[in-house]
């Protein structure tokens, strides 16, 4: 099994300078243990200005540290009997209504109880290939985003779905509650990693092209309910684009407004992958899959807007 997983970067601040490497990483990423970072350093998964250091060495102000959050040897892909809200299934494909809070695939801090673990239990014939920690996964939703999540049940289906996504032949529509009114607008703004906050993305010159089409569905004095169609699929794209318009998604703990989230008692990201539409790669039939809103998001929308979902 491959050890490679997510990669992150940080630039050493004045406060962090001259702190031994393992302690610095533990302070910067408190959700991981010092022992875990010592493992990464020892295995060469931590580079300081492109070079490996020992755990006792102390980076200097301005040094760039690259951390590959590798899976430790004890993490393995085990089938787990986790209930799935299945929206569509045939011999090739599976679509579920992912609940908010479900992680899509194993990663450090989330070694189990993910959609991949559930998928392996549900699809007995889906056997991970060597080094693959994301069997069946063709796209991702953030942990706190709910809604339609497609997966492949075979390696052949996986290749076919990946091809559809890469050719932008799968239409994806989301529902979001925003602070303020973004209006009916096509957003074309390039996205890349934030130069300072390396765990975040941002609109920045030289980033990857990104296009979202926003449509107003309902408004009140402070909030809007919008539909967003993703033309491209960049990391955090909807959240970044709506923040760019100064109308962030309500409940967004990273790109949103903490005061507005508290005022409206929004305890999670109010973003829902509502619908996908595509031509089935094997039957050639048009497939349209809708995910009903989660009960908490539906209750919030019903309370704040005069809008009736077509799912009702």
What features would you describe in this structure?
There is one protein chain. With 312 residues, this protein is an alpha+beta fold. The protein has three domains: 6-69, Structural Genomics Hypothetical 15.5 Kd Protein In mrcA-pckA Intergenic Region, Chain A, CATH 3.10.290.10; 86-166, Pseudouridine synthase, CATH 3.30.2350; 171-275, Pseudouridine synthase. The protein is built from seven helices and 14 strands. The protein has helices at residues 21-28, 34-42, 115-122, 155-166, 237-244, 258-263, 295-304, and strands at residues 6-11, 46-48, 64-69, 86-89, 93-98, 146-152, 171-179, 185-188, 191-193, 201-203, 211-219, 223-230, 271-279, 286-290. The model has no long low-confidence stretch (mean pLDDT 90).
Order of helices and strands: EHHEEEEHEHEEEEEEHHEEH
Task: Give the distance, in angstroms, between the N- and C-terminal Cα atoms.
Answer: 45 Å
Shape: globular
Task: State the domain count.
Answer: 3
Q: Could you say which structural class the secondary elements and strand pairing correspond to?
A: alpha+beta
Per CATH, the class of the largest domain reads: Alpha Beta
Could you tell me the CATH topology label of the largest domain: Pseudouridine synthase
Low-confidence parts, pLDDT < 50 over ≥5 residues?
none
Helix content: 10-25%
Rg computed from alpha carbons, rounded to a whole number of angstroms: 21 Å
Average pLDDT level:
90
């Amino acid at each position: 099994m491959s050890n490679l997983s997510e990669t992150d970067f940080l630039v050493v601040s004045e406060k962090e300078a001259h702190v031994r490497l393992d302690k610095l990483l533990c302070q910067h990423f408190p959700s991981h243990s010092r022992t875990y970072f010592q493992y990464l350093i020892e295995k060469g998964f931590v580079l300081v200005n492109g070079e490996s250091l020992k755990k006792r060495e102390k980076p200097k102000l301005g040094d760039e540290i690259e951390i590959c959050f590798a899976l430790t040897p004890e993490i393995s892909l085990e089938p787990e009997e986790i209930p799935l809200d299945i929206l569509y299934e045939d011999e090739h494909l599976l679509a579920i209504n992912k609940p908010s809070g479900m992680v899509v695939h194993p990663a450090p801090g989330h070694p189990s109880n993910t959609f991949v673990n559930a998928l392996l239990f549900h699809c007995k014939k889906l056997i991970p290939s060597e080094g693959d920690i994301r069997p069946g996964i063709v796209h991702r939703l953030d942990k706190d985003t709910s809604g339609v999540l497609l997966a492949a049940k075979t390696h052949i289906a996986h290749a076919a779905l990946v091809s559809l996504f890469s050719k932008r032949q799968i239409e994806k529509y989301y529902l979001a509650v925003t602070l303020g009114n973004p209006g009916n607008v096509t957003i074309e703004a390039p996205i890349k990693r934030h130069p300072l906050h390396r765990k975040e993305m941002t609109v920045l010159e030289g980033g990857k092209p990104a296009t979202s089409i926003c449509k107003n569905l309902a408004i009140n004095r402070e909030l809007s309910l919008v539909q967003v169609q993703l033309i491209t699929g960049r990391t955090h794209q909807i959240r970044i684009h709506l923040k760019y318009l100064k109308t962030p998604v309500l409940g967004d703990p990273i790109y949103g407004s903490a005061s507005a989230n508290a005022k409206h008692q929004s305890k999670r990201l109010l973003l829902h992958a509502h619908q996908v539409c595509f031509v089935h790669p094997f039957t050639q039939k048009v497939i349209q899959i809708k995910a009903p809103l989660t009960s908490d998001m539906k209750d919030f929308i019903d309370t704040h807007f005069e809008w009736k979902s077509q799912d009702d």
